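wait is this the right file?? whatever heres the structure
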């Protein structure tokens, strides 16, 4: 099995492979002129891939800041669910972490929810006795791990603000109830 250099494990196409694909497409166009239209499209696509490999090292954002708003609500006093964010500029990804009470005494943490929106919100959720603090533009769910990884664009992108709220879902074997614990809202600014 070939051993790839560390740079190749980044999920990006190595430059020498991109050059080789580009050269192959040019050669095919020259040998088979009847394929010119189709291959011309492939040439353009491979050229853009080639250019993107040079720009791939540049993440659109270099910093992240998080500020909280609103109040968390939880059935577990003293153990509020919290939310945080970490920007990895090397891999150009944003990790949004929903920290939650791990559970105890017949109460088990069974999942986490992350709500992302483009604006804050104050929608009462009477069934949970809480308030939804962000517009629910994207809702993500996972049963393991506390970090929700999000890929960021490599191209130049203007500063962006997202609003987020996390929730933890618990199952209690005494009474067989499902309970939710919501974090406060988080304004996440990427620059």
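ok assuming it is, sequence goes like this
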């Amino acid at each position: 099995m070939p051993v790839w250099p560390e740079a190749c494990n980044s999920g990006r196409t190595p430059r020498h492979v991109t050059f080789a694909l580009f050269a192959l497409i040019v050669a095919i166009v020259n040998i088979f002129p009847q394929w010119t239209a189709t291959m011309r499209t492939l040439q353009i696509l491979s050229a853009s891939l080639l250019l993107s490999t040079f720009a791939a090292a540049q993440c659109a954002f270099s910093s992240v800041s998080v500020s909280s708003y609103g109040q968390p609500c939880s059935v577990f006093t003293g153990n509020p669910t919290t939310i945080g964010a970490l920007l990895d500029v090397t891999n150009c990804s944003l990790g949004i972490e929903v920290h939650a009470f791990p559970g105890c005494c017949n109460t088990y943490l069974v999942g986490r929810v992350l709500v992302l929106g483009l604006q804050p919100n104050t929608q009462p959720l009477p069934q949970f006795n809480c308030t939804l603090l962000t517009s629910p533009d994207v809702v993500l769910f996972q049963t393991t791990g506390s970090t929700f990884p999000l890929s960021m664009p490599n191209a130049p992108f203007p500063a962006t603000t997202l609003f987020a709220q996390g929730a933890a879902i618990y199952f209690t074997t005494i009474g067989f109830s499902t309970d939710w614990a919501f974090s406060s809202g988080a304004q996440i600014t990427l620059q």
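The domain at 64-190 is CATH 2.60.40.10 (Immunoglobulin-like). so i think its the right one actually
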